[in-house]
Amino acid sequence: MDENSALIAQLLMEDEIEMRNRNGEGNVVVNVNVNGKDQSDGGWKTVTYSKRNKKQQLPNVSNLPENSSSDHRRSNGVGGGEANVFRSIEQHSEDRRRRIEEESRRREEESGERDGSKRHSDEDDGESDDGDRGGAGEQVKKVKKPKAKKPKVTVAEAAAKIDAGDLGAFLVDITVSYETRQDILLMRFADYIGRAFSPVSAAQFPWLKIFKESSVAKLVDIPLAHISQDVYKTAVDWLGQRSLEALASFVLWSMDSIFDDLASHQGITKGSKKVVQQSPSKSLVAIFVVLAMALQRKPDVLINLLPVINENPKYQGQDKLPVTVWMIAQASQGDLAVGLYMWIHVLFPMLSGKSSNNPQSRDLILQLVERILSSPKARTILINGAVKKGERVVPASALGLLMRVTFPVPSARVKATDRFEAVYPTLKEIALAGSSGSKAMKQVTQQILDISVKATGEGNSELSREASEIFIWCLTKNPECYKQWDMFYLDNLEASVKVLRKLSDEWKDHSVKHSSLDLVRETLKSFRQKNEKALAKAGNAGDYASLKEADKHCKAILGQFSRGRGCVRSLFIVSAALAMGAVIVSQKEYWDLQKLSAMLNLPSL
Fold it and tell me: Which residue stretches does the UniProt record annotate as biased composition, category Basic residues (predicted)?
């Protein structure tokens, strides 16, 4: 029983340690006298209770199988008849734990009530007249002072404070200091404008919202409408003295700043990591101001940047369309031809892509070209400037696309089709403008001929009619186009039949427009020879019918030539007869006058 007594004492000690740990007393030093023997350390041991170790050392005997229980008891040196001793000890421990937990909950509740009463007491003390703030441990709350609100400054108010004289003096100073560094000059100019607009907050210039909601007519005035005429003239005159290369770099830097800010807005909208933005005064208001001035003064800079804009994805996409439209609108303020050139090469191709299904994008693009073409004397200016830096403002490829969007099949018509029909005649006239007979114009007519023959052969009647008229125009402007036609005649038989039919029906109108008819006659004879050979090899009824119709029209036009020569011969004979008659009549009258003079003794004539 000595061993059992020692084990019981150890279990009771562990229960005591557990209770003390629950009450926050930490480690407990106890005196354990095992087997009644004195220990070398005076009988005192430091014991740290570990619930985990206890569970490992004392498994629940009642839950073990019979065999394992007996084995467990034997391994601990305890016989099977003494199992009830451990059971009573465990029951006693469970009761003590339950009492300890109840005592802990009671103490916590009492502690909470005391804290609450203390808080109420502190509040009462804080509100008392003597100003007693309670115990020394209480902290006094700091009252935050409200920040002084900055006055709101609008773009117009900031622009009104820019003095033209001060700006002019500043530009003179920096020009002297950095005469050979034009890049620094332009950045210093931008910095000056940036300081002027520094009081303007982002809320006063929500450019992204403004650009999305404004029409082109309003966009073109943002933000230069707030700049005085004197300041504008001082700035653009100075910008006009800068080189095109330096301005191109400056414009590209401005575009990067705007598109970086646009990307930051999109990142915040999509929930991505927030991007640190520059102050709105320098990255937005001022940059839009200096960029608009540069584009209006030197619009050709956009043509220089066209390869970069078309090749770099950074400057492409539907989200950047309002900014691109704004930039081209600014350039058109300085040169309508540059504005139309950029519209044709940058914006118009979007109408044939995925964006063509976006009504908002289509409307914005059409608004810009309508504004350009409606400008005073726009037609005369654009026809005279049909070539810009050696490139056609409206090239042959663009004319082909224009024909298709203006003359779609009836089922593909949209609201924008009427607007295309309104601008098409002027754009077509610009595409066909040029000096007849010049080398450049000959190349243009040959390019347009290739495009128009494809459009003529399509199943769209309206498109075919328009394309055949342009085809015949090429023939009248450049007789060499007949040789080109002869080369692809059979490959484009359907289109050739339509053109021959139109020539045959309207030959009187078209014949007078040809500078020489000899090449026309030779080409038609060549067609007849090809028709004869192809008819002999025709494998289907469709080709046979087309060849027969083409040959019929060729014969009819050649017949017009024969009748024309007969009329000329008859006219020559009649003219000769009339001339002879006039001579005879005049001689007869002369003889009669001679006789009359002799009878009257008058001097001879």
Answer: 142-152
Q: What is the pLDDT of residues 102-147, one digit of tens each?
A: 777 777 666 655 555 544 444 444 444 444 444 444 455 556 666 6
Cα gap 281→261, rounded to integer Å: 12
171: nearest Cα among 146, 159, 189, 198: 189
Rounded to the nearest 10°, the torsion over CA 431, 346, 371, 325 is: -170
Euclidean distance between CA atoms 96 and 202, whole angstroms: 69
The pLDDT, as a whole number, for residue 433 is 94
- Identity (one letter) of the amino acid at 146? P
**Distances in whole angstroms, Cα of residue 342 to Cα of each of 110, 306, 310, 425:** 82, 8, 11, 19
Distances (CA, A) of 500 to 343, 396, 490, 494, 506: 36, 23, 13, 10, 10
What is the average per-residue pLDDT within 584-595?
50
**pLDDT for residue 280 is more than 90:** no
115 vs 118, 121, 122, 128, 134, CA distance in Å? 5, 10, 10, 20, 14
Q: Which of these, 494, 328, 337, 557, lies nearest to 426 by C-alpha position?
A: 337
From residue 3, how far is each of 34, 45, 76, 92 by CA, in Å? Answer: 9, 19, 10, 19
Q: Give 368: exposed, middle or buried? Use CB within 10 Å, 0-12, 13-18, 19+.
A: buried
Give pLDDT, residue 510: 86
Give the pLDDT confidence of 455-476 residue by residue, as tens digits.
999 889 999 999 999 999 999 9
Q: Tell me the pairing of strands 44-47 and 391-392.
A: unpaired
Secondary structure letter of residue 273 according to DSSP:
P
